[in-house]
Amino acid sequence: AGTPVTVTLSNGAVITIEAGKTTGSVTVDAPKDDVYKDAGTVEATIKDATGGNFENLVASDTPAVTTVNDTIDTSTVSLSATANVAEGETVVYTASVSAPVTGSPVVVTLSNG
Questions:
Q1: Among the four 37, 96, 105, 106, which has the fewest Cβ within 10 Å?
Q2: Average pLDDT over the chain, rounded to whole?
């Protein structure tokens, strides 16, 4: 290309390919973690390409697709109980989680009701 080529992507990002070069890049953030929805994929297409003094610059309509790997935050809930009690006394059950509770409270239902 005799002059820089400006490529505008469908996500609003802009890539500049400098004169004499054949590639240019831009960095965009992947979606943030969402506990309710898997990340899935992110894609972008070329919305516009200008410059370069090309006789006929044709923009491909094939999307660039990136798979975003979900980071699953596994937490464990465990149960402990009073070690010894006399007949007729009460047993204390304690549930513990491996990470602080955020959002909704954790409800533990015991097998004995």
A1: 105
A2: 89
Closest residue by Cα to residue 35 from 64, 75, 81, 6 = 75
Q: Is the pTM of this model over 0.85?
A: no
Q: What angle do CA 80, 85, 91 make, to 5 degrees?
A: 45
CA 38, 39, 45, 48 torsion-angle sign: positive
What per-residue confidence (pLDDT) applies to 62?
Answer: 95
Which pair of tokens denotes residue 10?
């469908």
Mean pLDDT of 2-31: 94
CA–CA distance, 90 with 82 (Å, rounded to integer): 9
**Residue ranges of domains in the chain:** 5-67
